[in-house]
Each structure stands twice: as C-alpha cells, then as structure tokens.
C-alpha cells in the first residue's frame, strides 16, 4: 500500500513538471528579444503579490538610471500609447503578427515621430493624460528598433522598465519568462513558513496556525515531526519566494501543488489571466495576514469558494483536506519556478480530538454569505454586495458612531474593516444629518479611510441619502468640504527670473484626496503639465519662449472647491 501511495505521489510530481514544460512549449521561444541593451536582471517577476493585484509582467533593472534606450522586442507596430498619472505612466504597446502584444511601461520620451504625434494630441485636447490607438500603417517598427527611453514615470518607486507580453485577442497577460529570454536561473524556490486553517469556518473567522518547519537535504519538513490538528476539515498555506541566479531580489512563486497520501488535491500555475481577474490575488492569499504584517503573503494551497481565477487545474480538487480518521496522513507540497527548479515540503498530519476547538462568533456579527447577493443595512447606511463580491463567508460587523466635528454630515460608518477584501465596487448609501435645505449639502463628499488609504467621492443625492461606489471596506462618513486645494511652487518663486531652469514644478494638494482637476495656462494659452504624485511638472519647450510670462493655475477638488493662482516669471 505504501509503495502504491509513493508511486502516485511521484506521478503527481512528474505531471506538474510536465505541465510546466507543456505550457512553456506553447509559446514562441526566441521570438522576442531583450527590450534593453543590457543583460536582463529582474527586480520583480510575473505573479508577484502586490496590493490588490498580481504583478503582470517583468520589472527589468536599468542600473539605477533613467534614459536607457528601449527597443522593440519584435517586428510589429505601435498600436497604443497611454499616458497616466499612476499605473505605467508613459507606456507603449506594440502589436506583433504572431498574435501577441508587448507593453513597455514607466517610460520617458518616445521616439521623435511618436512623441510629436502624442504632443499634438495633448495640446489639441488640452489634456496631458491620453489613451491613443493607432493603425498598423502609422508607426510600424522592426525588431530591435529604438522606441523610447526608460524612466520612472507613473506608479513607479525607482527607475526600471516594466515589460509585458499579452495575447492580442484576449488581452490576457502571459508570463514573459515562458518565452525564453535567457535569464539564468538554477536556484529553487525557498519556503519560509507553513500554516494550517480550520476550514469548518471561514478563513476570515479564524486565523492561520503556524507550523514550524526546518530545511533538510532534499527539501523541507516540519520541526515537530507529526503535525497534530484539531479539525477534520483543513487547508494549508505557505510563505514562499523564488530567486534567479543573477539578481539579489526575491520573487513571487510560479507554481505550487499539494498532495495527501499521493492524491493531488490542488495545483496552480500563474500564467494567462487578465487585469480584470488580477484582483483575485486577494483570494489567493491570506489577505488579513497580508494587511496586518505588510510582509510576505501567505499563499493558500486551496481554492477559496469565491475565487474565480483560472490558474487552477480543474482536474484537481479544491485543496481541502478531509481527515475521516485519526491515522497519520502524508502531505507533500511542491513549489516550482518557470525553469522547473523545485522545492518540496513533506510532513505527516494527524487529527487529534484532544485539540478540537469550537468557534463562537461575536453577538453583533451579521453573516455575509459567499456566492450570494448580500445587503447590509443600519440606521444611516445601506451597502449592496453582488454575489461575486466576497471570496469566503464574512462574519460582518457594522458599527455606526456619532462623531461631533464641524465638518461631519453623518455618523461615522465602520463597514466591517480593512482586513477583508472585496472583489469589485459595491454601492453604499449614507444618510445625512443635514437639513434638506442646508446649502452645505452642495459641499458634501463621501470620505473613506481604509488603513492609510483615503478616498473622497462626490456622490449622488437621493433625498437624504448620498450614494457612491467603492472597492474597499473600512470607515465611511459624509464630510463637508469647503477647503480648496493648496498650490505651491517647488524650486522657484513667484516673480523670479529663471536661468538655465529646465522645468516648473507645482505641488498641488487637497486635504481629503487627490486634486480632481488641474488646469494651467501660460499667457492665456493652455500649457501641458505632467503629473507625479502630488507634483505637476512642466518641462520647458517651444510653448514657453524667452521673456516675461504669466502662469495661471486652477485646481479643483472632489467637492468642487476651486483654487486659482497667478504667477509671473521671466525665462532667460
């Protein structure tokens, strides 16, 4: 019997290796070239855990510098250019004849013809942010042709190139390392921690139980030998990372599987899914632990009931371990990278009735059921959740607090807490304490605070209720906002003569959220400022010749408060 189980376990291991090889064989190897002129060294790989999303490409190091030449990875044409404050900042999309599109993000200047076309559109529409589409005959490119300089634009914390490969038809992102970019890697993944969950209850009810592990020749095992558990229904999770041979950085894992007594219970491989589905990262990890620790995330080796991400093998189970007896059972966990380097964690689990525990939820809990529509109501709030909103059952807690402050227009609503994720935007209605004819209603916004993340929204009034949509739980309140944004020059002063200065920077901040709208004119004509965090930046060009100038700034917040400021300067 033991020999049969061993053979089955080995077969599961080999099937996972063969599936990785099969997936890699589906993609054209050697078709795409390195998009930089230096060897590829990664700082982030595909599938790494990020807040509310998987990382969807490769972050390629640029030696800590900006303005390295970026080259087209293959023949094709520039099909799209996107300019945005966050995200990939300045990005180029190249569509190739083999059915794939490559994406290059956080760029600085593009090649001249493309830059000139973009700038023309920006001034014609009086908008710095753009999302332009092009025909195949407008900007054709050859493999290895210069397309842009690398940068640090958008939601980037340092100079690097973000590089993606997408399916042109589906727009799904693929793991670029499966296309063979000759990145050296003979290092197996590392497993740091092992955890078990009592799955008689929601993963949001009971936290993980840590199981100490030790590294041994050939893999990992548990420090205590047999793992005794108090639940007949459980699942496991791990903290693990991967590494390449030529980079000091640690990366996200590509694939993992779990088997019990030789039977494969669950497996996944991170490849081929869309940005719309990337938010399911919150179902693939212990989100509560991730938010609390701000560290390496615990990745579930089971599929939560509301997880619809298509990275799991449908032939496997859900990863739930059912212990119908008190006998010892062999558990094998395998973690692999795209090159087949593997790490194993093998141990024995056994049900112990002496460890059995029961969980009683608090009295004020309102059960929210996964895969069903749910409505949570109070005296001053109504929240509507779709049937795909949650990944597991939630012991939901609603608290309404009277907060006396000069700018409050409703009680403070604690809509559960920031430690449980939602998959999509939900509708919330909050009832105001302001009288129907109060003119301050025109200055009311819905303000949300989730941990350190804050957001203000100008909602829609329906009687005494203001409605908005949000994609995070947390604290909500109607606030009266009569304070306009603050606009401050950075590195220069009003009335100054500017010598050898390459740009103008203005810091524009609002007390509740980002500035909703920013408009600048120079001597009465629209002037293009780019954006980076709270800074608005104009780089001197032909639109600002030498001489005396008047710069007028108008900044508007979410409540409609407007700041208008006028500056003068002389450009030498």
TrEMBL record:
<feature type="domain" description="M23ase beta-sheet core">
    <location>
        <begin position="140"/>
        <end position="169"/>
    </location>
</feature>
<dbReference type="InterPro" id="IPR011055">
    <property type="entry name" value="Dup_hybrid_motif"/>
</dbReference>
<dbReference type="InterPro" id="IPR016047">
    <property type="entry name" value="M23ase_b-sheet_dom"/>
</dbReference>
<dbReference type="InterPro" id="IPR050570">
    <property type="entry name" value="Cell_wall_metabolism_enzyme"/>
</dbReference>
<dbReference type="InterPro" id="IPR013783">
    <property type="entry name" value="Ig-like_fold"/>
</dbReference>
<feature type="domain" description="M23ase beta-sheet core">
    <location>
        <begin position="54"/>
        <end position="120"/>
    </location>
</feature>
<protein>
    <submittedName>
        <fullName>Peptidoglycan DD-metalloendopeptidase family protein</fullName>
    </submittedName>
</protein>
<dbReference type="Pfam" id="PF01551">
    <property type="entry name" value="Peptidase_M23"/>
</dbReference>
